[in-house]
Amino acid sequence: MTPGLAFFYGGMTKSKGILNMMMMSFSSIAIVSLLWVFYGFSVAFGASNGFFGDITQYAFMTQDLTGAWSEAVPVPTFVFAVFQMMFAIITVALISGALADRAKFAGWIVYAVAWATIVYFPVANWVWGGGWIFEMGAFDFAGGTAVHINAGAAALGLAIILRKRNGWPSGAYKPHNVPTIALGAGLLWFGWFGFNAGSEGAADAIAGVAFLNTQVATAAAVIGWLVVEWIRDGKPTLLGASSGAIAGLVAITPACAYVEPIGAIGLGIVTGAICALAVGLKYKLGFDDSLDVVGVHMVGGLIGALSIGLIATQKFYGEAGPQGLFYGGGVEQLGKQAAGAFAVLAYSLIISIVLGLAIDKTIGMTVSSEAETEGVDQVEHAESAYDFSAPTGGGGAFALAGIAPASGTPAAPAAPATSATVDEKVAG
């Protein structure tokens, strides 16, 4: 899923920033994997004091973890640990979309380490590891609160405090490669079945319900987004379809095992439409969230988390699951869902602002305006995804290829090419 996210985000950036964007996803895989083994799994799933787990319990994973994780999740602890590692990795990577086209890579590395340690690992304990949100009775089957609200709020914090992109909001910030976006969305959609259905920890009926609901909610969200886009802008776009799919995946994540398929479809349509409108909030409120992490992940995650208090049914999960207001459950569950969701939002937002400011005032979180103009790929990584130089010489493309189109005889060799800068819109 995280390489899929790299393609999804990468296609949305400028052509001179795609590698920096993808590097933030790949670095998240590298960094968080190691932190998870060192102490992350312990903090998230060690014996909880309500706020974080016993950091020594699984430290460095030197213990024998071949036994079953629990009676409810009878897979080996090693298997459970590596599955949960994936959640930690992609949550950190999601935040990077707020920094597109201007991220200083060293600043991102420091931020990723600090945010994972201070925010994600404890929040995972709150939600899944026996912490206070878990004990309160708020539900999150596969990560609406722990992953998407958490990452979206962190992205909002960075977008508020960091330097805006050159010319924002009046400049043109169109994606440079829409097919790459669609490729990434497709990889995410496919991987999300493991994300959601796999959270059951078994190949059983509940996993099947989660699998089906994930598909139909996402399909419905594509339609919901495109309807809004078609009415508002006059044309449906592949970018809109891809973004709608991600919004639907986000919203169904916390609720996938608790709702009926018809409820999942309704949730998807509503989420697609609301998120299509929500991505415009950054222009009204003045924060430069480059790739709409807030409008898709934070807003979509909130819709999904709160939906449990409205449309959850115990038909599949039994009395161990939630019962929503529309199914006779009263408002208590909705209140619990809201308390957990907004607590995580506030905590992640505040810590992200503090971390972002501290890093930006020391080693820096964003490159200079001049470096952004030059291209963050070259400035930060000394490489580029595309060849921005154009060969010169007579005869056009046929001559350059050694072909004479009129007679079929080989053309004279072209003059040696000289480097020339090509407009980014053409090269991209």
Automatic annotation (TrEMBL):
<feature type="transmembrane region" description="Helical">
    <location>
        <begin position="337"/>
        <end position="359"/>
    </location>
</feature>
<protein>
    <recommendedName>
        <fullName>Ammonium transporter</fullName>
    </recommendedName>
</protein>
<dbReference type="GO" id="GO:0008519">
    <property type="term" value="F:ammonium channel activity"/>
</dbReference>
<keyword id="KW-0472">Membrane</keyword>
<feature type="transmembrane region" description="Helical">
    <location>
        <begin position="75"/>
        <end position="96"/>
    </location>
</feature>
<keyword id="KW-1133">Transmembrane helix</keyword>
<dbReference type="InterPro" id="IPR029020">
    <property type="entry name" value="Ammonium/urea_transptr"/>
</dbReference>
<keyword id="KW-0812">Transmembrane</keyword>
<dbReference type="GO" id="GO:0005886">
    <property type="term" value="C:plasma membrane"/>
</dbReference>
<feature type="region of interest" description="Disordered">
    <location>
        <begin position="408"/>
        <end position="428"/>
    </location>
</feature>
<feature type="transmembrane region" description="Helical">
    <location>
        <begin position="261"/>
        <end position="281"/>
    </location>
</feature>
<comment type="similarity">
    <text>Belongs to the ammonia transporter channel (TC 1.A.11.2) family.</text>
</comment>
<feature type="transmembrane region" description="Helical">
    <location>
        <begin position="108"/>
        <end position="129"/>
    </location>
</feature>
<feature type="transmembrane region" description="Helical">
    <location>
        <begin position="205"/>
        <end position="228"/>
    </location>
</feature>
<feature type="transmembrane region" description="Helical">
    <location>
        <begin position="141"/>
        <end position="161"/>
    </location>
</feature>
<feature type="compositionally biased region" description="Low complexity">
    <location>
        <begin position="408"/>
        <end position="420"/>
    </location>
</feature>
<keyword id="KW-0813">Transport</keyword>
<dbReference type="InterPro" id="IPR001905">
    <property type="entry name" value="Ammonium_transpt"/>
</dbReference>
<keyword id="KW-0924">Ammonia transport</keyword>
<dbReference type="Pfam" id="PF00909">
    <property type="entry name" value="Ammonium_transp"/>
</dbReference>
<feature type="transmembrane region" description="Helical">
    <location>
        <begin position="181"/>
        <end position="199"/>
    </location>
</feature>
<feature type="domain" description="Ammonium transporter AmtB-like">
    <location>
        <begin position="1"/>
        <end position="386"/>
    </location>
</feature>
<dbReference type="InterPro" id="IPR024041">
    <property type="entry name" value="NH4_transpt_AmtB-like_dom"/>
</dbReference>
<feature type="transmembrane region" description="Helical">
    <location>
        <begin position="293"/>
        <end position="317"/>
    </location>
</feature>
<feature type="transmembrane region" description="Helical">
    <location>
        <begin position="237"/>
        <end position="255"/>
    </location>
</feature>
